[in-house]
Specification:
47% helix; Tetrahydropterin Synthase, Chain A; 309 residues; alpha+beta; 3 domains
């Protein structure tokens, strides 16, 4: 076996953009022949994957998976919306959510190291998908909900297949009631979360920085008023704000709960369920939220393609 030096690995990395260990393995497999190693990486799809890794991926799918008392939502991104209709990409997104439930982890880096069906790790599977489909892809984030007993409601908006779409929601209902009696409530609340996009379950779950910012805005709007008046205005304004952004306090969007908040709707459902119900938590992922999409200058691209720049 050829002696693979650090300089050889560095040279191959610069030529292909592949990872250090992949370059080392390629050189080992090809007896140190740089050109043969480049071809080896290309055949494995590793060179292609590395070249695409810098491109912005803001499309893709949100995948939802529930098994018993555990539920997970993951966001798997691609560069274009077209890939969301690819069966292989859909299988990848679906499998990632399933693996997250089976392994009990929603930590992205830990998930990437999990064994993937068919061999290798999830990270390997993503690299292979990049090479096969031809776009950059990323496992951006994952979140889970768990219950001791009860029901996990779910909803997927703009669904392209079961459990896959543009918005994914999970709602955890903790209760000793029959899960079948909890199911309608769980779905209605999940639909509400998708539409109303609450920031937190209740005021105690809101980030302190968000509350401080809202107080500052309210105070600024009423600058100059006496301190005792300003205090009451801010207090009243916060109550209104909580009704807008906290799930428990939001007015339900459903006709079945007309005039009631989500918290009141849950309380009312206890009569039908025959047991207390606690809205334990929720997760809502919308595809691409928070990703700064790259804007392209079409005229410049055309000119560049023609060698005019």
């Amino acid at each position: 076996m050829a002696n693979v030096t650090a300089a050889m690995v560095k040279d191959l990395r610069e030529k292909t953009g592949a990872g250090m260990m992949d370059c080392k393995n390629a050189l080992g497999e090809t007896e140190g022949n740089i050109e043969a190693a480049i071809d080896w990486l290309r055949k494995k799809g590793l060179s292609k994957a590395a070249k695409k890794s810098g491109r912005i991926a803001a499309e893709g799918l949100v995948s939802v998976f529930v098994r018993g008392a555990d539920g997970v939502v993951v966001e798997v991104n691609s560069e274009t919306d077209f890939v969301a209709r690819n069966a292989d990409f859909q299988d990848l997104a679906r499998n990632i959510a399933r693996l997250a439930v089976e392994t009990g982890t929603s930590d992205v880096e830990a998930l990437k190291a999990v064994a993937y069906p068919g061999g290798g790790t999830l990270s390997d599977a993503i690299a292979n998908a990049i090479a096969t489909i031809g776009e950059n892809m990323t496992l951006r984030r994952a979140a889970s909900v768990q219950i001791g007993q009860g029901f996990i409601g779910q909803y997927v908006h703009n669904s392209v297949a079961e459990g896959l779409g543009k918005i994914g929601v999970l709602v955890a209902l903790e209760s000793k009631a029959d899960p079948e009696k909890l199911a309608p409530l769980g779905r209605l609340i999940a639909l509400h979360v998708a539409a109303a996009n609450p920031l937190a379950l209740d005021p105690s779950d809101l980030d302190a920085a968000i509350i401080a910012r809202e107080k500052a805005v309210l105070a600024g709007k009423n600058e100059g008023k006496p301190a005792h008046v300003l205090e009451k205005i801010v207090e009243s304004g916060l109550k209104t704000y909580y009704k807008e952004v906290c799930l428990i306090e939001q007015p339900s969007i459903h006709a079945e709960h007309a005039g009631k908040t989500i918290g009141q709707a849950v309380k009312e459902a206890e009569k039908t369920a025959g047991a207390p119900i606690t809205l334990k938590g929720f997760v809502r992922y919308a595809l691409g939220e928070g990703i700064e999409k790259q804007e392209s200058d079409f005229a410049a691209e055309v000119a560049a393609a023609g060698g005019q720049i």
